[in-house]
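Question: Now follow the chain.
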Amino acid sequence: MTNRPNGTLYLGVTSDLARRSWEHREGVADGFTKRYGLKRLVFAERHDDICVAIQRERNMKHWPRAWKVHLILAENPNWDDLYDRLA
């Protein structure tokens, strides 16, 4: 999640991406995303194993910002909000 292209980034794990993205967009839960206005879903990965997803999140949280931006740009060069594409 981010607030704008090249803006503040947030990483998280969820079993329901559509619901969680909606919660961030609507500011339902207090916290980091609400404080910084992070409402734009710009990247997501699907994992069938929650343990793999959690490990990937932990690894990515330690990555340099440039690596995260590169990953986003490779999949979503315009930093489009992907929320409406969720099924």
Q: What stands out?
A: The helical segments are 17-26, 32-36, 50-61, 65-75.
